[in-house]
């Protein structure tokens, strides 16, 4: 900006400042510059190179006019101003007036200078804005020119391309035309040659013709031939001639074409020339434009550099200001935030302190509790340890006690065994009749009673052995070897007599009686009921046991032979229940001619003549025999008017055993007797046959009682022969036998009198001693006899 202005003004030399009187401005300047002339002598620096075009275009008229007006003002250089500012009025001591003047002058000069400075400042500002405008317009123009140039360039480029294309096509055309022309020329030349050749030929032919014509005369034939030949030749010549004409026409046309082509070529060439000229012109203008563009670009670059600098400064300042503002804002924000945070933190801290204090309190409380709990746990530990030791002690004691208990139980078991053995021994030594009492359960037909007729004492000494019967408010107590109440099963009863059965197998003579009034359960006890196995009576159970035991003893070398017989004694008559000829129709019911006489031999063995004795070797055989006997009895029962309860049933099993290893032999007898009903005559109220029957029963039973009591009293005479039953059982009731009597009792209140009678009888029997039982064992010399007996069966 400065540059453009200063360049319009002639640089001033120091001499010009000092120059003397070239108008007012110079005077003024001299006055201002007075005293500083020497220092302000240096020439003002010329401004940087500026585009001449710009100078000419932009700052032409108004700039120069402004300069002209300014040149009327007083002007200062930088050095002059500095000198003026630094100058001090030359004071003379006593020349106050002079001093004042000098000061005034300096003042005025300074004022002028100041004014100039201000003016310049204003000028500068104006200039700056103007320059800025100029620059903008320049830039705009530059851009316009650039765009225009670009457009022109584009246009000229397209024109060039078009021209080049046209040129190429024209060239191509030209070359084609030329080649065509060459071909035409060539053909023409050829035609020409051919024509010449033909003409020469024609000439030669015409010569030949002449010669031939000359010769025609000579040879007519030849002439004719020649004529023909000539004709043909003429034809050929005419043809050639026509060919020539067409060729000439062609040639003419070709030449015309050639002329046209040549003309065309010349016009194309002219066109090409003009185009090339145009191209050259546009190239030149393009170059010019490019040059201009370059210069403009460089200028713009310069201006842009300046502008950029100024902008950078401004931006820097602005950025600084913004930074500072941002920082300020940040600080403000931070302080605000910090304040808020601080408040929050303070409140939080207060809260925390509160919770802390409460926690502290809790902790102290918990600590107290903990110490208390610790103490408690210590004491508990101690007590637990004590308890544990106590527990261990207790456990030790318990185990000790258990051991002792086991020992005691073992001892008890052994004691029990010993007791049984001793009991057996005592029984054997004592040898008395044993009496068991069995009370049947109440039946639906039994009379009802308010009080129980039969009760069982619960005292320890008579437990399972005592029975009390109430009659007319009076209690009659009885004690037997065993009392079975109504709920005792067949098996319970059998367990108690199994030892007795076993002794039959060991060689003893055994009798088991069932005594009691009719309906008290004698047959139930002895035979049981056939419908269920658990209701089996003592007879089948005893036989099963004997067979099983004999099987076991066989392994020890024992051989057994068993013989079974079953008979009935009714009215002192023996009946064979196993007789195959047994007739159920007749009263006597015995087979005709059979005499059942009872005989005892010297060895104490009983034999009944004509009685059926069956060898049995298995339970199945015994079962079928028992069924047969029961049938015989049941037949009699229905046909003989309850005869069964008025007859004695005797089942006898004789057991012969031989041990070949030890040369032992033994002979046991098992008698199982279901006695007739023991009820008294008055009760039965019978007359006639019935009376006789009852009398017979009572007689035989009383005979049995007599025998037992006589044996008990050890009288010399025992009345065995008074009844068939006692005589039959004589060897088995003697001193070396084992006898068991079941007294069956009915709980029916209407039978209490009979029950008392039965129990009183049984009690008397129980008090008897029959003697010491003895096993019937023989040694070797007796074996022969046994063998003969075994064969007898
Ligand atoms: P007895 O032979 O003495 O005349 P029974 O043996 O015929 O008597 O018995 C009479 C009734 O009583 C029969 O119906 C029998 O089944 C029944 N009875 C006897 N004793 C018992 C008992 N212990 N358990 C169940 N019923 C029995
Ligand atoms: Mg009976």
Automatic annotation (TrEMBL):
<keyword id="KW-0067">ATP-binding</keyword>
<feature type="domain" description="Kinesin motor">
    <location>
        <begin position="432"/>
        <end position="768"/>
    </location>
</feature>
<feature type="coiled-coil region">
    <location>
        <begin position="307"/>
        <end position="425"/>
    </location>
</feature>
<feature type="compositionally biased region" description="Basic and acidic residues">
    <location>
        <begin position="17"/>
        <end position="27"/>
    </location>
</feature>
<dbReference type="GO" id="GO:0007018">
    <property type="term" value="P:microtubule-based movement"/>
</dbReference>
<keyword id="KW-0175">Coiled coil</keyword>
<comment type="similarity">
    <text>Belongs to the TRAFAC class myosin-kinesin ATPase superfamily. Kinesin family. KIN-14 subfamily.</text>
</comment>
<keyword id="KW-0547">Nucleotide-binding</keyword>
<feature type="region of interest" description="Disordered">
    <location>
        <begin position="1"/>
        <end position="71"/>
    </location>
</feature>
<keyword id="KW-0493">Microtubule</keyword>
<keyword id="KW-0505">Motor protein</keyword>
<feature type="coiled-coil region">
    <location>
        <begin position="128"/>
        <end position="215"/>
    </location>
</feature>
<dbReference type="GO" id="GO:0005524">
    <property type="term" value="F:ATP binding"/>
</dbReference>
<dbReference type="GO" id="GO:0003777">
    <property type="term" value="F:microtubule motor activity"/>
</dbReference>
<dbReference type="InterPro" id="IPR027417">
    <property type="entry name" value="P-loop_NTPase"/>
</dbReference>
<protein>
    <recommendedName>
        <fullName>Kinesin-like protein</fullName>
    </recommendedName>
</protein>
<dbReference type="GO" id="GO:0008017">
    <property type="term" value="F:microtubule binding"/>
</dbReference>
<feature type="compositionally biased region" description="Polar residues">
    <location>
        <begin position="1"/>
        <end position="16"/>
    </location>
</feature>
<dbReference type="InterPro" id="IPR019821">
    <property type="entry name" value="Kinesin_motor_CS"/>
</dbReference>
<dbReference type="InterPro" id="IPR027640">
    <property type="entry name" value="Kinesin-like_fam"/>
</dbReference>
<dbReference type="Pfam" id="PF00225">
    <property type="entry name" value="Kinesin"/>
</dbReference>
<dbReference type="GO" id="GO:0005874">
    <property type="term" value="C:microtubule"/>
</dbReference>
<feature type="binding site">
    <location>
        <begin position="516"/>
        <end position="523"/>
    </location>
    <ligand>
        <name>ATP</name>
    </ligand>
</feature>
<dbReference type="InterPro" id="IPR001752">
    <property type="entry name" value="Kinesin_motor_dom"/>
</dbReference>
<dbReference type="InterPro" id="IPR036961">
    <property type="entry name" value="Kinesin_motor_dom_sf"/>
</dbReference>
């Amino acid at each position: 900006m400065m540059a453009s202005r200063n360049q319009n003004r002639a640089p001033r030399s120091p001499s010009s400042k000092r120059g003397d009187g070239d108008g007012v401005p110079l005077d003024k300047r001299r006055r201002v510059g007075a005293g500083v002339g020497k220092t302000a002598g240096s020439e003002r620096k010329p401004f940087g190179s500026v585009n001449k075009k710009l100078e000419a275009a932009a700052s032409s008229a108004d700039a120069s006019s402004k300069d002209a007006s300014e040149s009327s003002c007083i002007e200062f250089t930088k050095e002059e101003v500095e000198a003026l500012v630094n100058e001090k009025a030359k004071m003379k001591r006593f020349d106050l007036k002079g001093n004042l003047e000098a000061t005034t002058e300096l003042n005025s000069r300074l004022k002028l200078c100041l004014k100039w400075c201000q003016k310049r400042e204003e000028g500068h500002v104006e200039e700056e804005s103007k320059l800025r405008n100029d620059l903008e317009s320049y830039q705009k123009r530059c851009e316009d020119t650039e765009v225009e140039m670009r457009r022109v360039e584009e246009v000229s480029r397209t024109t060039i391309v078009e021209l080049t294309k046209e040129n190429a096509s024209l060239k191509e055309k030209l070359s084609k035309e030329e080649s065509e022309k060459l071909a035409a020329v060539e053909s023409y030349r050829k035609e020409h040659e051919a024509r010449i050749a033909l003409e020469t030929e024609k000439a030669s032919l015409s010569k030949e013709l002449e010669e031939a014509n000359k010769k025609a005369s000579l040879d007519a034939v030849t002439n004719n031939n020649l004529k023909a030949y000539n004709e043909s030749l003429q034809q050929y010549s005419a043809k050639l001639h026509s060919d020539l004409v067409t060729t000439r026409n062609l040639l003419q046309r070709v030449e015309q074409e050639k002329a046209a082509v040549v003309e065309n070529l010349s016009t194309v060439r002219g066109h090409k020339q003009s185009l090339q000229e145009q191209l050259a012109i546009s190239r030149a203008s393009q170059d010019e434009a490019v040059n201009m563009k370059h210069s403009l670009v460089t200028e713009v670059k310069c201006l842009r550099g300046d502008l950029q600098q100024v902008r950078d400064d401004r931006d820097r300042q602005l950025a600084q200001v913004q930074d500072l503002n941002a920082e300020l804002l940040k600080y403000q924000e931070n302080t605000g935030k910090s304040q808020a945070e601080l408040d929050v933190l303070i409140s939080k801290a207060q809260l925390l302190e509160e919770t802390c204090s409460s926690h502290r309190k809790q902790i102290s409380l918990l600590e107290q509790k903990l110490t208390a709990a610790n103490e408690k746990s210590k004491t508990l530990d101690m007590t637990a340890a004590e308890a544990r030791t106590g527990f261990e002690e207790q456990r030790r004691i318990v185990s000790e006690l258990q051991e002792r208990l086991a020992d005691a139980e073992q001892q008890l078991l052994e004691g029990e065994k010993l007791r049984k053995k001793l009991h057996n021994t005592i029984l054997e030594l004592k040898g008395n009749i044993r009496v068991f009492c069995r009370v049947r359960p109440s039946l639906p037909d039994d009379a009802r009673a308010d009080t129980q007729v039969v009760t069982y004492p619960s005292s320890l000494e008579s437990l399972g052995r005592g029975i009390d019967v109430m009659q007319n408010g009076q209690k009659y107590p009885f004690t037997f070897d065993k009392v079975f109440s109504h709920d005792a099963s067949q098996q319970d009863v059998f367990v108690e007599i199994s030892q007795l059965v076993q002794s039959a197998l060991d060689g003893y003579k055994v009798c088991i009686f069932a005594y009691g009034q009719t309906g008290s359960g004698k047959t139930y006890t002895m035979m049981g009921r056939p419908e269920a196995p658990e209701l089996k009576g003592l007879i089948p159970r005893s036989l099963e046991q004997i067979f099983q035991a004999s099987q076991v003893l066989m392994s020890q070398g024992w051989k057994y032979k068993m013989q079974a017989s079953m008979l009935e004694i009714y009215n002192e008559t023996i009946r064979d229940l196993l007789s195959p000829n047994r007739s159920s129709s007749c009263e006597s019911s015995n087979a005709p001619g059979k005499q059942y006489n009872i005989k005892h031999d010297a060895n104490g063995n009983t034999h009944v003549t004509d009685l059926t004795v069956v060898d049995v070797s298995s339970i199945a055989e015994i079962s079928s025999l028992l069924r047969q006997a029961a049938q015989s009895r049941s037949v009699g029962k229905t046909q003989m008017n309850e005869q069964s309860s008025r007859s004695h049933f005797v089942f006898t099993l004789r057991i012969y055993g031989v041990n070949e290893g030890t040369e032992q032999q033994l002979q046991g007898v098992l008698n199982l007797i279901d006695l007739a009903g023991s009820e008294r005559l008055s009760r039965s109220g019978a007359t006639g046959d019935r009376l006789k029957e009852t009398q017979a029963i009572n007689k035989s039973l009383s005979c049995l009682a007599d025998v037992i009591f006589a044996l008990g009293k050890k009288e010399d005479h025992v009345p065995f022969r008074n009844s068939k039953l006692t005589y039959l059982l004589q060897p088995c009731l003697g001193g070396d036998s084992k006898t068991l009597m079941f007294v069956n009792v009915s709980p029916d209140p209407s039978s209490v009198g009979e029950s008392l009678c039965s129990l009183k009888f049984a009690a008397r029997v129980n008090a008897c001693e029959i003697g010491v039982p003895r096993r019937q064992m023989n040694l070797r010399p007796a074996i022969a006899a046994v063998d003969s007996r075994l064969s007898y069966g």
